[in-house]
Amino acid sequence: MAISFRTRLFGMATLIVAVVLTVVLVLGWQGLLRSEVERLENRLCMEARRVATQPHQALDGDRLAADLRLRLRLGEGDALVWRLEPGAGLPPVQSSGAASLDTEALAWRPARRLGPPPPPPPPPPRPPRRPDDDRPPDDDRPPGGDRRPPPPRGTCELATTALQGGEGRAARFTTPRTRAVLAQGLAPMKVEMQADLQRALQVLVPLALALTALGAWLLASLTMRPVNRLRTAMQGVTRLALRQRLASAGEDREFQDLIAAYNTMLERLDASFQQASRFSADAAHELKTPLTILQGRLELALHQAPDSAQQTALADMLDEVGRLAAITRKLLLLSQADAGQLALHRENVDLAELLETLVADAQMLATDQRVSSTVQPGLHTLGDALLLRQLFNNLLSNALRYGRPGGWITVSAQQQAGGIAVVFANATAPLGAAQRARFFDRFHRGDSAHNRAVDGHGLGLSLSREIARAHGGDLALQVSADDEVRLHLWLPA
Question: What is the pLDDT of residues 164-203, one digit of tens each?
Fold first, then answer.
């Protein structure tokens, strides 16, 4: 099954948008992961500095581990390793899994410069002095305010490590006296990010798909709009309106070039068609007078011929002249029909009466064929009586001339909605698809009619269809068995 151009545009636009969204999603995920890793490294440095600046004597390992997990938003099963090396010959304090972390084997790199450490919490307010208080004033705070020493400065380094079989990050904060190492796995952060992404995608993916389909369909529709306008204009151009030209104002440059090429093609077709029509009309008109004169003189010579042999020769010549005259008349009518100048003298025509008369004549002319008719009475149309008689006569003569000997011919006519349907059917020798395709070609005759034994010149069916179309109807070959011909004529009521 052929796929429409609009559907292909829709599919291509949807595919392109889907690929772009996929690339943006992948790149966005990588950028977000990179940003979260940087934030994690910054938090690790901050926490390592906090651990390194705490007094070693007051350090409680369990409370420190719980505090770190709370600050880093980690669960009980998440990978977290920390170690504090206070220096000055004091033993290190570390978590349970810190022994497996070889800090010296890691590739440390300087971290970004951290901001100033958070200020220490203010001292608790001193209770007011009582009259009986014998303490000296400001015994716990010397004059000049709080003179506690500032926290020691240090440097932070970062490294990539492996924790519990997964990737992790480690931060090492070093001061002149202490060193703190803190490492965390990336798995909890990735799990949290994936959960957030899944929750977001559950809403965004259907919305994105709907917007993508809508956008692709609108894009395909907007792209096809100039093509549809051009197609509609082309469908309105007929052989009787070859001088119409398509306007290109307001169209895109590519469609302006296409319209210009189409208009150029119409000009060439119009010129060729007008030349062919003029030639047929001029030739038929010029032949009409000499043939009429020749026919009259042959008839006069036939009456004055002294012997039968000469009369036979003159009669044969007269038949050929009559044949040429009939071809000339039909060519003239066809040229007028092609140019849209077939003159119709319209009047109320009783098609039922006309058909019955012609069928009766055919029954008398048929020697070995059965001719029957089923005609509904009261079939009237507004048309040219002479041309309609010629149309029916051509179809009946064609059935008599090319029908199978011993066969049958039927004519049926009935009123239909808005028109009159007439069907001419007859038995014939088997006809192939190629012969049926050329049924209305001018000067085309069947294989059995190529010899002069069967009268005719291959213009009757073509002229009959032109007469039907000139009256606003049509003549078509219906699908039937190979040994049967069915011609369907439709005329407006």
Answer: 778 888 899 888 888 888 888 888 888 888 888 888 888 8
Burial degree of 243 (CB within 10 A; 0-12, 13-18, 19+): exposed
Q: Are 379 and 350 in contact (CB under 8 A)?
A: yes
Neighbours of 214 (CB within 10 A): 10
Q: Is 381 in contact with 420 (CB distance < 8 Å)? A: yes
Say how many CA atoms lie within 13 Å of 178 toward its Cβ. 24
Residue 50 one-letter amino acid: R
Are the C-beta atoms of residues 172 and 157 closer than 8 Å to each other? yes
For the whole model, what pTM was predicted? 0.46
Task: Please list, in sequence order, all residues whose beta carbon lies within 8 angstroms of the beta carbon of residue 249, skipping any fewer than 6 positions away.
Answer: none
Distance CA 257, CA 259 (A): 6
User: Residue 353 phi/psi, 5° resolution?
Assistant: -65, -40
Q: At what angle do helices 308-338 and 253-304 cross, to 10 degrees?
A: 160
Residues in CB range of 419: below 8 A, 6 or more apart: 473, 490, 491, 492, 493
